[in-house]
Design a protein that fits this description.
By secondary structure, this protein is α+β, with helices and mostly antiparallel strands. The chain folds into 2 domains: about 50 residues, no CATH class; about 80 residues, Immunoglobulin-like (Sandwich). Helix content is about 25%, strand content about 25%. The strands form 2 sheets. The chain has a 4-stranded antiparallel beta sheet with strand order 1-2-7-6, with no helix packed on it. A 3-stranded antiparallel beta sheet has the order 3-4-5, with no helix packed on it. It is flat, with a radius of gyration of 24 Å.
Length: about 160
């Protein structure tokens, strides 16, 4: 038989803890945790969470260097679109990708590297990139062969 009376908290202690909680503090904590773990391009995708912050301080140097990246996928490809600040940036860019990440070097400034996690696996070859009106568009074909391995289910371990 389980010793139910030996929990570290009795009912009075739990009630006191619950009475001391502030719903606004809980909401701000949850919003901060979601911001840390949800990719930036998914923040305003119709999720029922409020991601807006009330930070009225002027942007610091690192916030000024950030740039906006749009990542979306079709049935066959993944597209990445980035607004470039000027033509000189286009000349310095180097673009690489793995099966699940795109790496852009010299963006937002020379010597910096920006990594974008892709929403699905992509092929090693066949990617293309073009710039039109200072918008860089990278097109990467999706991997159509998902490698599945069957797992045998036994009756006991």
């Amino acid at each position: 038989m389980f010793p139910w009376g030996m929990f570290p908290f009795n009912n009075d202690e739990l009630k006191n803890i619950a009475d001391k909680m502030n719903p606004a503090d809980i909401q701000s904590y949850i919003s901060e945790m979601i911001k840390k773990y949800v990719p930036p391009h998914m923040e305003n995708s119709g999720a029922p969470f409020n991601f807006q912050t009330t930070n009225n301080s002027p942007p610091n140097e690192t916030e000024k260097q950030k740039f906006h990246v749009d990542v979306f996928e079709t049935f066959d490809h993944i597209f990445i679109r980035i607004q470039l600040p000027d033509e000189e940036t286009r000349k310095q860019l180097k673009i690489f990708h793995t099966t699940n990440q795109a790496i852009i070097e010299n963006m937002p400034e020379p010597g910096k590297r920006h990594t974008i996690v892709l929403p699905s696996l992509v092929k090693k070859k066949g990617a293309s990139a073009m710039v039109k009106d200072l918008i860089l568009e990278i097109k990467i074909p999706k991997m159509d062969d998902t490698q599945l391995t069957e797992v045998d289910v036994s009756e006991r371990f």
